[in-house]
Amino acid sequence: MIQKVGIIGSGTMGSGIAQVAATAGCRVKVLDTKQEALEKSKLALEKILSRLVEKGRIDQAEKKRIQDNISYVDSLESLKDSDLTIEAIVENIDVKQKVFSELETYVSEDTIIASNTSSLSIASIASSLQKPERCIGIHFFNPAPLMKLVEVIPAVQTSKEVTDQVVDVIKGWKKTVALAKDTPGFIVNRVARPFYGESLRIYEEGIADISTIDTSLKTLGGFRMGPFELMDFIGNDVNYTVTETVFRAFYYDPRYKPSFTQKRLSEAGYLGRKTGKGYYNYDKTGGVISQNITADQVKGLDFNHSVSKEELSQYIFNRVLVMLINEAADALFWNIASAEDIDNAMTKGVNYPKGLLAWADEKGIDWCVHKLDKLYDEYREDRYRCSPLLRKMVSEKKNFFSLV
């Protein structure tokens, strides 16, 4: 039974995971080698819990219980009595392997050692351990206390007992589990790539400016944030690094090709809200002032007839949506996860308005294939190849779910 949890890293993710575990009744130790980072984590928790008290979500007794369940430490040895450790530090494979290797010298043989990595190979991380069968990926989404989804990713070395135990624990923490295969980006960071990548492509082609693209996807698709707003929120450096990692890990598959626009913004230090400049300019409160970058020339769709704003918005939405659907279908085709877990991952992990496979059923599988084939005929790029699963489903007249 998991009662003692060690969290390595006191940043936003580590602190958020600690709050989740402590709320569930676990005794939690948060580790950071910098005392000021631990103090910052402690103060952030105080602020969050006080706000929950003010809103009537919890009372003072519950606030004290959660805080009392968390202690702050500065050495790996302090985690020796942990039943489960979750690492939430920098996305660097060498650093993670070094930490895991040292951690294993302190903890018991039964301790589960997990990584919160968003895209790195769990098998590679596990290889640093003497007992790799105890290693697993447990990927929370930010902010961890609010986001319902947790991706659980067993490596090829992970024992079934560890996987089953972790799934039970995370469900006990009142989270929705999506079980994913250990492939680049897992579910969410793989399937979501076209939301950013295809939007950037549309911008770079000069079809529309960033504001038009954002507005189209929010208005027609019901997405809470447009792709450029979201990249600025995440941080263009972070988003670009994940894109580059996934592209490289998939042997340079053109579907995941990074954008020069995002690369240049990262190089310029236009990282989004945290720097005040990204695709948009921001004031001190994070409010949008104006677009920071504009297309050299917005040529539109370049049809032989004039295109209304409504037609342009529909084109943008359809193009991005069908690429997202294609990615979700391909994840299912390659057995990355079940259809239910893929749709749960996108709705509960990144707040998509609908599951992409359910959305495909709604639009019609034949509609998806037609749109993809039209894009492929226009560009003749492998980027737009239709998933074999979609094509097979059309021929067999099947849907992903019995919704339509």
Which properties best describe this structure?
404 residues; eight-stranded mixed sheet; 17 helices; 10 strands
How would you summarize this macromolecular structure in one to three sentences?
It contains 17 helices and ten strands. It is an alpha/beta fold and 404 residues long.
What does this protein structure show overall?
This protein has 404 residues and is α/β, with parallel strands linked by helices. The chain has 17 helices and 10 strands. It has helices at residues 12-23, 35-54, 60-68, 93-104, 122-126, 160-172, 188-191, 193-204, 210-221, 227-234, 236-249, 260-268, 309-333, 339-349, 356-363, 365-379, 388-396, and strands at residues 4-8, 27-31, 70-73, 84-87, 112-115, 135-140, 149-154, 176-179, 280-282, 288-291. The chain has an 8-stranded mixed β-sheet, sandwiched between helices. It has a two-stranded antiparallel ribbon with strand order 9-10. The longest helix is centred in the C-terminal third of the chain and has 25 residues, at 309-333. 46% of the residues are buried.
